[in-house]
Amino acid sequence: MLFDDTYLTIEKPAEGVFRDRGSKFLAYAYPIQSEQDIKTLVAGLKQQHPKANHYCWAMRWSTDRSIFRINDDGEPSGTAGRPILNVLLSRNLTNVAVFVVRYFGGTLLGVPGLINAYKTAAELAVNEARVIEKTVNDVYTLDFEYLQINEVMRIVKDEDLEILEQHFDNSCSIKVAIRKIRVNQVLAKLEKLPAVIAKYEYSA
């Protein structure tokens, strides 16, 4: 199998609402940069909805789509986090978290009812989101002398590299994102320049 160097995520946050027998399920889909985002987002929703009964969520993270987490937050096991995650899996989305905030309406929905409610709410939020394709990139820091700036920047421009950070002085440093399938080709060009040091940082 060829290495897949693209993945699907969402461009910006989106929301959806589902109601069933008095209960209200408010769904929020967010693009996330790391697993640490979850804590901040949950705290924000609890502040926004202090009287809600449950704050359930699922997230899928990493460009190879391998990391996921679910949280039923007091609902019967498997009735909230898992159905939300299944929506992300069925749409093949990653680097996305979907939260569903529930206000209990007084009528028990039962296991099938809960599964349907959390799944439908998550779907409504994801349907509102704009799905975008991103490339899997390796991020490198390039260190070089100021005299080499033109040669380095020519490679950056020719290879259409995204500059994430730059610092120019006597000694210069730029952080660039290189599409994974082109890393070897770019590094080979950089290696031809004397005293340019390319340091791998992370994949994104």
SS element count, helices = 5
Q: Using only CA atoms, what is the Rg?
A: 22 Å
Derived from helix and strand composition plus strand pairing, the structural class reads alpha+beta
What proportion of the residues is helical, as a percent range? 25-40%
Cα-to-Cα separation, first versus last residue? 21 Å
Query: How many domain regions?
Result: 2
Strand content: 35-45%
Number of strands: 11
The CATH architecture of the largest domain would be 2-Layer Sandwich
Overall shape: elongated
Gist of the model:
This protein is α+β, with helices and mostly antiparallel strands and 204 residues long.
In words, what does this structure look like?
The protein is built from five helices and eleven strands; from the N terminus they run βββαββαβαββαββαβ. It has two domains: 6-133, Impact, N-terminal domain (Ribosomal Protein S5, domain 2), CATH 3.30.230; 137-203, Alpha-Beta Plaits (2-Layer Sandwich). The chain has helices at residues 37-48, 81-91, 110-128, 149-158, 183-191; strands at 6-10, 14-20, 23-31, 54-61, 67-71, 96-103, 131-135, 137-145, 162-167, 171-179, 197-203. 30% of the residues lie in helices and 38% in strands. By secondary structure, it is an alpha+beta fold. The radius of gyration is 22 Å and the shape is elongated. It has a five-stranded antiparallel beta sheet with strand order 2-3-6-4-5, sandwiched between helices.
